[in-house]
Structures are given as C-alpha cells and as structure tokens.
Specification:
single chain, 11 strands, 1 helix, 6-stranded antiparallel beta sheet, 3-stranded antiparallel beta sheet, mainly beta, globular
Length: 128
C-alpha cells in the first residue's frame, strides 16, 4: 500500500512545517474497494454485501515502512462482495477519513462463503 490520501498528506505537512497538532487515530481500519478511491478519498466504491465490515489493523513501523503486524481477516461473505481491486486504511469503522490506499497486486472476486485475508506483513505503507 503506497498512497497517502490528500487528507493525511495535508495533516503531515501542517504538523511538520507549521506545528499544527495532529492526533493519530487510536484504531485504524482496513476497507476493501471494488473501485479504487482517488487521492481525495472520493470516487472509490467500498465493498458491500452480507457480512462485510471494515476490520481493525495493528500497524508497526520500522525504518521507512509500516506494515500490519498480524493478519487481517474479514468475516465470511454471506453474499457476493464483488471483485476487490484496492484496500485502504481509515480512522473510523464507518465513514471517517481515508489515510492510505493502493490497488491490490491481483484483484480477487469474493463470492458467498469466501473469506478475504491479508496475511501479516502483506499490508505495506511506505514513503520514498
């Protein structure tokens, strides 16, 4: 996962260069998308379907990379969720602010009875 959202970029710039306080969200949530969002957090289509809900994620940082320290497993789909093409990290379980996002390496169609899982260490956020 590579791209910071405009929201997070603006918060980082204001904090680093203007000293504007920014409280990091205590809990972060992974969302799945059938259409990827843009930098401004709009234009994407978040997954929907029976059983879908954003999942909490614990992130750790080492050097210039942040990654998930444990697996992120979504509930068993009770209906089709569509084809997942991107994932994002939010500061809330619903609505909220998109923090970072990226397209998946390979899209994945989720049908009834399927489980979407992100293995530990597979959700990477980096800055170059």
């Amino acid at each position: 996962m590579a791209g910071f959202s405009d929201y997070l970029e603006n918060k980082v710039l204001a904090y680093v260069f203007s000293g504007t306080a920014f409280s990091q969200p205590g809990t972060k949530y992974v969302a799945l998308f059938t259409t990827a969002p843009g930098d401004d957090g709009t234009g994407g289509t978040e997954c929907s379907g029976t059983g879908y809900a954003r999942q909490t994620v614990t992130l750790t940082t080492s050097g210039s990379a942040t990654t998930n320290s444990g697996a992120v497993e979504f509930p068993t789909a009770g209906s089709s969720w569509g084809t997942i093409v991107a994932a994002g990290v939010y500061d809330a379980s619903t609505s909220g602010n998109l923090l970072a996002f990226n397209n998946l390496t390979a899209s994945k169609t989720i049908g009834s009875g399927d489980v979407f899982r992100i293995n530990a260490g597979d959700l990477d956020i980096t800055l170059d």
